[in-house]
Design brief:
Among the domains are: about 5-260, TIM Barrel (Alpha-Beta Barrel), CATH 3.20.20.70; about 395-450, Double Stranded RNA Binding Domain, CATH 3.30.160. Helices cover about 40% and strands about 20% of the residues. It contains 17 helices and 16 strands. About 45% of the residues are buried.
Length: about 525
């Protein structure tokens, strides 16, 4: 069985702009355990108070699948093992599994540790031997092993043998600089296995600096590796670590290895999104297996084929990893896309002529710069408008935005006023904001919340602006994409296009609000009122 060793909470937090509080790390650890990860590296208790706090908190948590491990380095040469603060901190963390790293590259021994090569072998062996007296399991991370092997093969192997003598339960071969290509890596693993014998348990820890960390990890398994170290979403220093979110489904679904309980595989996409959310990162829509675009289909030929059999353009069933199939609507779309999307939303397209009219309108709008790939809420509204099943929640009377700058050293003051009508009642409100779009959004919500209080639970999750015709300078066409979110975690995208960025933003804002209440009411088909304003 392949063991998965997750180091998101230690190596992953070394990524730029990533910082997790102790409580955040506990939450992530619980999700990793529920998914079926075997080892969770909690941090380096001897390096900072935050990691030590995590180990104190995790003691009270009963894990079902995972064992928490503490990380650290071999002892300093001038310290005896029992006096070394780093080793003592690992023991005091309260865990029963530890991983320590040592130098395998002779260049690092001389230039970083400034000790002799024999002394380095000694500290590796007796550090492990000491921890083995206190721990149930001790793993050894052979830092820079592949670079060390290429520079001084015999010495790199001697560091592994020293770790073996110290009692390491698993020897993890680390490509710390991420520069070793898969074919080199597997050749070296084969040499290690011949030198150490089949009884030696080997692991792999690869960084992604050459964009091959996942491939190297998978190939390493084919060459006898039994423990894979990596992080969720590939978080890590520089270009990141081997991405467990890609490694695990490849191992289990394609290579036939038993990695996590089969019933847990559908938790993979939610786990990936959860870790990004806790890390305050936007989830990559293009990430294999779990990204929103991983099973998204755009071309009409693709969609037509997927309708007949998803295997025509999908390597696995997206539901196996907790993802879902999506069909995008664009100028490449055919009738298949429109029919598929309508079925997804339980929309009745009516006659063939109405379907052709929807397709015609979409293509016409995209010529003007509209894009529905990231704005499926606007697409659904467009379908309902075209088929006469659209009921706006208010009538638009007008808006005005004023920007006043009174002092050179202070930001301008922006004010927006909005006038709408709901059920014969005219509401005229004003609000100030950080900019014209912010002020307009606040004024619109202020006017509508009186009639629709649930709007308070809807927030703007993302706002993107794209200049579509930069050759026209300040009169360029602008496309605005807005992603909204409610308190239930539902998200939907809307789009607006205009030569005026405020007008484009207004279109997207209105669609976002209309969509929320349309979905709340369910799929109704009310005649379109005379005072409604179609998108086009």
């Amino acid at each position: 069985m392949i063991k998965i060793y997750d180091t998101t909470l230690r190596d992953g937090t070394q990524a730029e702009d990533i910082s997790l509080l102790a409580d955040d790390k506990v939450r992530v650890a619980r999700r990793l355990d529920a998914f079926g990860i075997h080892y969770i590296e909690g941090g380096w208790p001897g390096s900072n108070p935050k990691d030590f706090s995590f180990f104190n908190k995790i003691k009270d948590l009963e894990l079902k699948n995972a064992r928490v491990t503490a990380f650290g380095s071999t002892r300093k040469l001038e310290n005896q093992p029992e006096q070394d603060q780093n080793l003592k901190a690992i023991i005091e963390s309260g865990v029963r599994v530890a991983t320590i790293f040592g130098k395998s590259w002779d260049f690092h021994v001389r230039s970083a540790l400034h000790i002799s090569l024999p002394d380095n072998l000694m500290v590796i062996e007796d550090s492990l031997a000491f921890l083995n007296l206190k721990m149930e399991q001790v793993f050894y991370d052979a830092e820079h092993f592949f670079d060390g092997f290429k520079n001084n093969r015999e010495y790199a192997l001697s560091t592994l043998k020293a770790a073996q003598r110290g009692g390491a339960k698993c020897l993890i071969l680390c490509d710390t600089n991420g520069g070793t290509l898969p074919h080199e890596l597997t050749e070296i693993i084969d040499v290690v296995r011949r030198e150490l014998g089949d009884a030696a348990s080997l692991g792999i820890h690869v960084h992604n600096d050459s964009e091959t960390a996942v491939a190297s990890s998978l190939l390493a398994v084919r060459h006898g590796i039994t423990q894979i170290q990596g992080t969720i979403n590939g978080l890590g220093e520089r270009c990141g670590n081997a991405n467990l979110v890609s490694i695990i489904p490849n191992l289990q679904l394609k290579m036939g290895y038993n990695v996590v309980p089969p019933e847990n595989m559908c938790k993979l996409a939610p786990l990936s999104r959860f870790v990004d959310e806790i890390s305050n990162r936007r989830h990559s829509r293009h990430q294999p297996f779990v990204g929103r675009s991983a099973f998204a289909h755009k071309g009409g030929i693709h969609v037509s084929a997927v309708q007949k059999d998803p295997l025509t353009y999908e390597h696995i069933d997206p539901e196996m990893v907790g993802n879902q199939r999506r069909v995008l609507v664009s100028d490449l779309s055919g009738r298949s896309n429109i029919i598929y999307k309508a079925n997804e939303y339980n929309l009745d397209l009516g006659s063939k002529e109405e379907t052709e009219e929807i397709l015609k309108r979409i293509k016409g709008l995209e010529e003007k710069g509209f894009q529905f790939e990231g704005a499926e809420a606007s697409f659904e509204l467009l379908v309902k408008k075209t088929t006469g099943c659209y009921r706006p929640i208010f009538s638009f009377k007008g808006f005005r935005v004023m920007v006043n700058k009174f002092r050179y050293d202070r930001p301008p003051l922006t004010e927006a006023t909005v006038m709408i009508e709901v059920g014969g009642v005219v509401e005229h409100t004003a609000s100030v904001g950080a900019g014209p779009v912010d002020a307009l959004n606040k004024a619109l919500r202020k006017a509508l919340e009186k009639f629709y209080p649930e709007l308070k639970k809807v927030t703007l999750d993302d706002y993107k602006v794209r200049i579509l015709s930069s050759d026209k300078g300040t009169s360029s066409v602008t496309r605005v994409l807005i992603e909204s979110k409610d308190d239930q975690g539902n998200k939907w995208g809307t789009v607006g296009v205009s030569t005026n960025i405020i007008e484009a933003s207004w279109q997207a804002l209105i669609d976002g609000i209309e969509y929320k209440y349309m979905r709340k009411r369910g799929v109704e088909c009310d005649p379109e009122p005379e005072n409604s304003t179609p998108l086009s």
